[in-house]
Amino acid sequence: MTDHVDLSDPYFLQYHDRGMKKWQGFIISEHATSVHEEDERVHKIVPQKRKMTFGEIGQIFEFAFNNNRQVVIQLEIKDAEGQYFDDTIGFIEGFDELGYIVNDTKVHYDEIRNVELFDFRKWYNV
C-alpha cells in the first residue's frame, strides 16, 4: 500500500462534488433543535393586552393574594423591536410602597400593563 494518491486517476477526474448538501446529514440533532428554538424565540410575538387601571389591577392582586392564586402580569416594557416581553407568572409574595413581589421579582406599580388570574390546569385534565 502506498500513501500517495494519484489524482490523475479517472475516478478523481470524473468525480462530481455536490458541495455543502452532502454535509447536512452531519448536523447534530441537538444543534438543529436549539437553532430552531432560538429562531422561534426571536420571532415570537407577544400580543398587547388591554391597559388596566390601577383600581382594576389592585382588585385582582388583592383577590389573588388573599386566595393564594397565581397571576399573569404583562409589563409595560418593550424590547428593541417594540415587542412586549413574555408575561410574568407567579404567586404574589408581598408588596411595599413601590410595587409587588412576584416569585422573588420586584414588579413596580407603574410597570404593570395587565393582570389576569392564572388558569392552572392539571396535566391529566389537558
Describe the structure.
With 126 residues, this protein is α+β, with helices and mostly antiparallel strands. The protein folds into 2 domains: 10-42, no CATH class; 54-125, SH3 type barrels, CATH 2.30.30.100. It is elongated, with a radius of gyration of 27 Å. The chain has helices at 10-14, 29-42, 54-66, and strands at residues 70-75, 88-95, 99-102, 105-108, 112-117. Strands 4-3-2-1-5 form a 5-stranded antiparallel β-sheet, with helices on one face. It contains 3 helices and 5 strands; from the N terminus they run αααβββββ. The N and C termini lie far apart (66 Å).
List the helices and strands and how they pair.
Elements: H1 10-14, H2 29-42, H3 54-66, E1 70-75, E2 88-95, E3 99-102, E4 105-108, E5 112-117
Antiparallel strand pairs: 1-2, 1-5, 2-3, 3-4
End-to-end C-alpha gap: 66 Å
The helix-strand sequence is HHHEEEEE
Question: Describe the biggest sheet?
Answer: 5 strands, antiparallel
The gross shape turns out to be elongated
CATH hierarchy, class of the largest domain: Mainly Beta
CATH architectural arrangement of the largest domain? Roll
Give me the Rg, rounded: 27 Å
List the domain count as a whole number.
2
Structural class: alpha+beta
Q: What is the helical fraction, as a range of percent?
A: 25-40%
Q: Strand percentage, roughly?
A: 15-25%
Q: Outline the low-pLDDT stretches.
A: none
Q: Provide the spatial order of strands within the biggest beta sheet.
A: 4-3-2-1-5
